[in-house]
Amino acid sequence: MKMTAKYKNKKVLVLGLAKSGTAAAKLLLELEANVIVNDQKPLEENIAAQSLQDLGAEVVCGSHPLTLISDDLDYVVKNPGIPYTNPLVSAAMEKAIPVLTEVELAYHICEADIIGITGSNGKTTTTTYIYEMLKGSEKDPLLAGNIGEVACEVAQKATEKNVLVTELSSFQLMGIDEFKPKISLLLNLVEAHIDYHGTMDAYVHAKGNIFKNQTSNDYIIYNADDKKVSKLVELGQATLIPFSTKGEMKHGACIENGYLTVFGKRLLPVEEMSLPGEHNVANGLAAAAAAHLAGASEEKIRQVLKSFSGVAHRLQYVDKINGRTFYNNSKATNVPATITALKAFEQPIVLIAGGLDRGLSFDDLIPYFKKKVKCVVSYGETAQKLVETAKKANIELVHCEKTLENAVKKAYVNSEEGDIILLSPACASWDQYRTFEERGEHFVNEVKKFS
């Protein structure tokens, strides 16, 4: 890693530990900063804080005294999840003390080029696509950010022979100063995280930080079909590379005569992509453009587009058994996410849905139930509500089960060759599972029993 002197002898407050805060504090100590760690968990229960104290950090745990924000403080490095309304963060900003996230530290020490991926949806799939496409290339890819390890940890291992493929949230991008990826991707912009950012404009501005320091020697790959994205990237200085599923792009990535085409070169017919849905075609185009610029071969890009099974729990292909194809979309914890999944398929769908009852309506599903779904199997707290929604859509095959295990069995019994059996719950998992990942893994294990 590059041993930057930027933080040497600087007084830095690391606010909030968890994975990213702990990694940032350790790195800052190695860079010879004077580190103060502040975390809510009391010191006697806080193993991370204890280890940092042993390494030489000053540790303040159990409370957040405003006296930590002093005139001699040079930087605050905060956990991305801590809002800017936090009293310590607000006080730092009032004193014009830079408030950073650990991705800024990663940039300053990283010897490798960085590919940064952001957007409201599709970040994880696109990031993983790029990572897989670059395997075996001249520069070995390393996965970092919201997916994989903390960016400043991975950056310490990176050399000029690597490329850092980094998923970036709006929370992380608000806390950058000089961070500059060689290639940035802006996939789409829809209303999200307004409770954190306050307004849609603030959210969009945070996303735009990904290219604010780029120059004409860098690239921004952007969604030309998204008006908000197209308008935002006009503020940047990087070379613009558009992608589109709707129009032809001679200097970018698009669908041309039914083929995924990147920089004028045909890769493969759309129907040969392994992941279904227009949103995944868009993700694939964006990833292919980035991977091409970073040195991946056409053959490797083509191979990944044809074989990639998806990120776990995000419209993940599970198996094909007796002509039925199973998909795990446990990440769909709300109605819009389930609508996106339903839109991805042309085949008849047997839908498994249900989970925690948040008191919300499922009526927005009705038009998609009518067009796409032949059978609904509901389970969990929301089972009866989903039954009523399915009946409003005039679906004849509707079943209500107590558990996901029983729902999977019922879905199989009510399916036939050529059907899609889709777990896309439209609900949080917390009535029966600790996480959506646990729910998805249970589904995958139940599917395996049929093979």
UniProtKB/TrEMBL annotation:
Top-rank EC class of the record's enzyme: ligase
Write the record's keywords in alphabetical order, separated by commas. ATP-binding, Cell cycle, Cell division, Cell shape, Cell wall biogenesis/degradation, Cytoplasm, Ligase, Nucleotide-binding, Peptidoglycan synthesis, Signal
Listed GO CC annotations: cytoplasm
| Limits of the Mur ligase central domain | 117-291
Domain Mur ligase C-terminal residue range list? 313-427
Q: Cite a single GO BP annotation.
A: peptidoglycan biosynthetic process
Under what name is this protein listed? UDP-N-acetylmuramoylalanine--D-glutamate ligase
